[in-house]
Amino acid sequence: FTVEEYVLPKFEVTINAPKRISFLDQELKVNVCAAYTYGQPVQGRVQLSVCRKHYNDRCNETPKGICEAVTAQLGKDGCITKVINTKTFKLYHPRMFRFLDVEAILTEDGTGVQIIGADYISIYQARERMWFKNMDMYYKRGIPY
Questions:
Q1: Residue ranges of the Macroglobulin domain (predicted)?
Q2: How far apart are CA 50 and CA 86, in angstroms?
């Protein structure tokens, strides 16, 4: 049992990524921002990783996965946007996994303080989509249109 002093972080990391993607999507855009509690942007370096992990429920194996990682300096606005190619994740195997893990480790310039932000992206399983434009307002399901 230990008692430690807790100090609130001076800044926070936010990740803006799509909530879900389809296995047909070829790329996804991830935006990482860092701001101090008083609103000013943070200057620092971010390590962004997007991973597809495969968990085997039958065995207690550690998750194996495929990751795309990027390290970059934040802009003057405290943000960075990266486009990740999804081909390396092989999203067309829907039974193996249902989401991508997104993690951003931000290291503040000058102090070296690190804060981690995390999110996930669901993988949409449907294979087909259909939209009706200018549809008759009296359409009834099951009747030929």
A1: 5-92
A2: 10
Q: Where do we find the tokens 């991830």?
A: 30
| pTM of the entire predicted model | 0.73
Q: How far is CA 55 from the centre of its chain?
A: 18
Q: How far apart are CA 103 and CA 79, in angstroms?
A: 15
